[in-house]
Amino acid sequence: MIADMSEHLLTHYVTGRWRAPLATGAVAVRAADGQILGHVIAAGAADLARAQAGLARCDSAGLRRVADALDAGAEALAQAWAVQTGTALDPDALVQAIARPNTVSGGLLQGDRAAPELGAALGSGLRGGLIWCPPPGQALFATVLAQQVAQADIKPGAFNLLHTRDQI
């Protein structure tokens, strides 16, 4: 799984497709044991503006497809989380948190988050259009999740992934 991530780690998922970053600064992505897994290109202001210009809301049917795609890829999500954090992930709880009806609060999601909080934030963010900017410590997991969201065939712009250093 990790070997297949190198190309996607170097790109951002914006408006329904993998796109080359507009910024150029590379940041190491490390495993929990410190091993370098690859690099991400940290998003800059132009990357954020491109994602903001394409934001769209995800409807209920799209959220169900996202939950189904993440459920089908639960093993890969758990593996990516464990490699980077050194902790276990309950993918079922993550999927349930995303699918659970909650508030609509699209926009920018930044910072390091625990899985249950992340699931709820992703679910409410998708409802309003989301730009997720995880830190390098979640880049592998975020990339696996974005690959699975891409398979859910939701409206382009409802989910966007910009790799970052820590904050844009």
Protein traits:
Aldehyde Dehydrogenase, Chain A, domain 1; 7 helices; 168 residues; single chain; 3-stranded parallel sheet; alpha/beta; two-stranded antiparallel sheet
Helix-strand topology string: HEEEEHHHHEHEHE
Radius of gyration: 14 Å
Strand order of the largest sheet: 5-6-7
**Would you identify the CATH architecture?**
3-Layer(aba) Sandwich
Residue stretches low in confidence (pLDDT < 50, at least 5 long) are none
Q: Tell me roughly what share of residues is in helical segments.
A: 40-55%
DSSP helix count? 7
Given the helix and strand composition, which structural class is it?
Answer: alpha/beta
Strand content: 15-25%
* Total individual domains: 1
* Bulk shape: globular
Span of the ends, CA to CA? 28 Å
Name the CATH superfamily assignment: Aldehyde Dehydrogenase, Chain A, domain 1
Strands, total number: 7
Mean pLDDT: 87
CATH topological fold name: Aldehyde Dehydrogenase, Chain A, domain 1
- Biggest sheet details: 3 strands, parallel
CATH class: Alpha Beta
Question: Could you characterize the architecture of this molecule?
Answer:
By secondary structure, the chain is an alpha/beta fold. It has a single domain, classed as Aldehyde Dehydrogenase, Chain A, domain 1 (3-Layer(aba) Sandwich). It has seven helices and seven strands; from the N terminus they run H-E-E-E-E-H-H-H-H-E-H-E-H-E. It has a three-stranded parallel β-sheet with strand order 5-6-7, sandwiched between helices. The protein has a two-stranded antiparallel ribbon with strand order 1-2. Strand 5, helix 6 and strand 6 form a beta-alpha-beta unit. Helix 5 packs parallel to helix 6. The protein is globular, with a radius of gyration of 14 Å. The model has no long low-confidence stretch (mean pLDDT 87).
